[in-house]
Amino acid sequence: MSERRVVGIDVSKAELECFFIPDSVGWLEPNSESGIEALVLRLHELKPDLVVLEATGGYETAAAVALILANFAVAVVNPRQVRSFANAMGKLAKTDKIDARVIALFGERMQPEARGVPDEEVRELDALVTRRRQVQAMITAEKNREQVAAPAVRPRILEHLRWLSQELDATEEEIGGKIEKSPAWRTREELLMSVPGVGPTTARALIAELPELGALGPKRIASLVGVAPWPRDSGMFRGQRRIRGGRASVRCSVYMATFVAIRFNPVIRAHYKALTARGKLFKVAMVACMRKLLSILNAMVRDSRPWTMAAAA
Predict the structure, then answer these.
(1) Global pTM?
(2) How do the domains of the chain map onto residue ranges?
């Protein structure tokens, strides 16, 4: 069996630290248009089977897109997984060069799935949905400050709140405009909103941040969002199962939709009542209902079928 050829790239705002195995060759490129072009040319010479980058808050996007367009197999992985892998290998030191080598080793041994990146329209919608969430968080923070602010600064906080409210309205309008321009997105939004409890905010977050909805099985989509319980068993010990990982922003949107669905969606309400009647704690029952709601939404998108109680039960 031939040895896998893997490039690991540690991404920062300014630099791309690269490492190639099996040749154990490392080099540095600037994280700029010219640097990414040079990286593509270098990888055409090396012909890797897989290129692995850590997700770094968007700094990896330009390089990942360019590499995918150049027909390389690219995997963007969770930094926590790579750090756990490094700890398991006993590599506690952390520098950009070490990280690039660890990422390459992670790619060689764990063989993460290579995936494409969303097209330009999806990335723009994702950015707008993220911006809306940031503005909402700032509004909440400023309202909390206003309650305890000294008289000298309260007018400034109120002025900032007025600006944030305008920014939120403008962002909402732009998100709605992008959804309206796309027949596929408009259809999906209407489909998702046919479920009692799912409003436009949740529907748009799912469109932008969970494009895999409808394309994966219920267990994989639950794991992707982070509502799949993981066992903690060892020998005779049976630990409490907990959720972990996944896409936190999507999970928050699904949580809010589930909170509403418990009141207004007969299927989710019945499921919640059955769980609490069996003595399940609120958090446990909520996560189970989130998982059920997500499974219903996944099946609806997969089959292009609007909400019906019979199909969801």
Answers:
(1) 0.72
(2) 6-110, 119-181, 195-313
41 phi/psi in degrees, rounded to 5: -60, -40
Fold of 6-110: Nucleotidyltransferase; domain 5 (3.30.420)
Confidence of residue 121 (pLDDT cuts 50, 70, 90): confident
Q: Which two tokens stand for residue 251?
A: 């999970």
Contact status, residue 94 vs residue 103, Cβ threshold 8 Å? no
CB 58 within 8 A of CB 86: no
Q: How many CB atoms lie within 10 A of CB 90?
A: 6
The DSSP secondary-structure symbol of 95 reads -
Query: In which residue are the tokens 């936190």 written?
Result: 248
Distance from C-alpha of 185 to C-alpha of 193, rounded to nearest angstrom: 12
- Tokens linked to 76: 């963007």
H helices present in the chain, as ranges? 33-46, 61-69, 79-88, 96-110, 120-148, 154-181, 183-193, 200-209, 218-225, 248-264, 266-277, 282-303, 309-312
Q: Cα torsion for 176, 167, 58, 245, to the nearest 10°?
A: -80
